[in-house]
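JOB MANIFEST
job_type = single_chain_structure
chain_count = 1
residues = 261
[input]
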Amino acid sequence: ICNPTSFHIKSIKKIIKNKINILIEKPLVSSSRDLKILERLHKKYKINLFLGYMLRFDPRIELIKSKIKKRFNSIRYANFILQTYMPNWHPWEKYTRSYASNKKLGGGVLLTCSHEIDLATFLFGPASEVLCTRTKSFLKTNVENSVSLIIKHKNNITSNIILDFSSRSVNKRNFEIIFDKHSLIWNFSTPNVLIKTSKKNSYLKPKRDTSIDKIYFYQANDIHKRLKKSASGKAFNKLCLAEKVIFAAKKSLKSKKFVRV
C-alpha cells in the first residue's frame, strides 16, 4: 500500500478481510483513530503487517544498534536532523498540490518525514512523552513544514529531532548519539559510522553495501523471512512506536506542552 497516508486505512480494510499479508509505506496511518481501528483489525485477522521504514535495515544502523546495546547505560542523549526542500521532490508538480502539503491527504513533515522518529524509537525504545514546536517556514501549505521535537524515552534517554522539509539552502540527514566519553555519528551520505572522542576520530565500517538500493533489498529479505512466522499482538505494538510519537507530537503542537505517548 503506497497511496496517500490518509487513504491507508481504507485500503487496509479492503485487503485484510482476505487475510493477505500487507506491506505499508510509512507511516502506518494518518490519525490515532485510524491506528486504533487498525489494531482491532490486526487482532481479528492476525495477518503480518510490514512497514516501510527501510532505514532500520541500513547496515550502518544495524552496526550502531549492536554497539549501543553494549553501552546502553552510558548514552546521554541523541540529536537527529533532517533538512530537505519538499518543492524539489517532484519538480514536475506544483508543490502545493502534493500530498505532503495537504492535511486531508495525511501530509505534513511529521507524517511524511517520520524516518528519524522511527530510528529514535528503534534504537532507544518506546517514548514516554513528547514536546513538539513548530518552527518558521515560508512554504504555503496547510500542514506543519518544520518542527522541533523532544522525545523522552522510557529508559530516560532523550532524543532531540529537527524535521524540516522547507530548507531551501541546506540538505542534510544525520544523527549523533552522545555517550559519557564519546559519540557515534550516522550520516546518510557517508558509508561509515564516525566515532568521536576528545582525542581522535575513528570509523566503524559496515561489512555490507550501504547504498539505498541494497537497503531496500535487505528489507525485502527480512520480510520474506518473517512471512514464515505467525503475527502477534506484540509485533503490532513494536510496529507503531513511531506513529504513537507522531500523534502525541500533533497534540503537543496544539497544547504547547509535553504530551504522554
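[summary]
Helices lie at 8-16, 32-45, 59-70, 109-112, 115-124, 212-226, 233-239, 241-255.
The mean pLDDT is 95.
exit_status = 0
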